[in-house]
Write a structure and sequence with these properties.
The chain has helices at about 1-15, 40-45, 60-70, 125-130, 135-140, 155-160, 160-185, 195-205; strands at about 30, 60, 75, 80, 90-95, 100, 105-110, 115-120, 145-150, 185-190, 210-220. It has about 220 residues and is an alpha+beta fold. The chain has a single domain (about 1-20, about 45-220), classed as NADH Oxidase (3-Layer(aba) Sandwich). The longest helix is centred in the last third of the chain and has 23 residues, at about 160-185. Bound molecules: flavin mononucleotide. Flavin mononucleotide binds near residues 50, 52, 136 and 193.
Length: about 220
């Protein structure tokens, strides 16, 4: 009942948000990722901390591109920054943009093979997403939020039920990459697992198969 009410509330909020069809022709090229930030892994591991309050500054398109690349970027012959069982790559990433210089407010889908963002939805959905995440203010306040979704069928087709475990493990790999990359860039983030799956999918207009798994609000310190 509570979830039903929340979903209705979010649907009403969404009625005021402009929608745009996914259009690959409008894809936004991201700056090429840097592959030598000059910091040691050990220093970054020691510095990593969950942060839930953010400065008012905007992220740059280069920072956003770097974080997406850390999560799922292509490194060699189609292989990616994070390991994947059977190299089947069940994860799909979205960026909810609020304050990113050079990027309009809205929702974008990341295309690893082209290191591009495809617009999915226009308008500021951060407050609605925060509501879907059980009212966690850090999501409404963040400059952007990275959303990990999974198409579990890509992995369960080969591995059966055990594939479900593999997919969840992969989300953790990719999220830790983002956490360490954010720390190296002196950006603030936290991993958020507490949210209503259906409400998040509704707010962000996800296709049926893209199931939300993890959120990472991001901002300046
Ligand atoms: C699976 C998982 C789910 C989490 N969900 C949330 C969440 O919904 N909201 C939140 O503020 N922090 C969440 N956290 C962050 C933890 O609270 C945080 O990692 C913990 O307090 C340790 O702090 P540290 O990350 O700075 O080491 C989550 C962490 C994990 C691993």
């Amino acid at each position: 009942m509570r979830v039903g009410m929340m979903t209705i509330g979010i649907a009403l909020m969404m009625a005021t948000i402009e929608t745009a069809p996914t259009h690959a022709a409008q894809a936004i090229a991201l700056p090429p990722p840097q592959v030598d930030g000059g910091q040691s892994v050990e220093r970054v591991l020691r510095a990593r901390r969950s942060v839930r309050e953010y400065g008012r500054g905007a992220l740059t398109l280069a920072e956003v591109g770097q974080l997406l690349w850390a999560a799922q970027g292509i490194t060699h012959d189609g292989l990616r920054t994070a390991p994947s069982a059977g190299a089947l790559y069940p994860l799909e990433l979205y960026l909810v943009s609020g304050r990113v210089s050079g990027l309009g407010v809205g929702v974008y889908h990341y295309i690893p093979a082209r290191h591009r963002l495809v617009p999915v939805l226009g308008g500021d959905v951060r407050a609605a997403l925060a509501q879907a995440a059980l009212g966690q203010d850090c999501i409404a306040d963040a400059a952007a939020t990275l959303v990990f979704t999974a198409v579990t069928r890509r992995t369960t087709r080969k591995y059966g039920e055990r594939g479900l475990r593999y997919v969840d493990i992969e989300v953790g790999h990719a999220a830790q990459n983002v956490f360490l990359q954010a720390t190296a860039l002196k950006l603030a983030t936290v991993t958020v697992g507490a949210f209503d799956d259906d409400a998040v999918a509704l707010v962000l207009h996800f296709p049926h198969e893209h199931a939300p798994r993890y959120l990472m609000p991001l901002g300046k310190h």
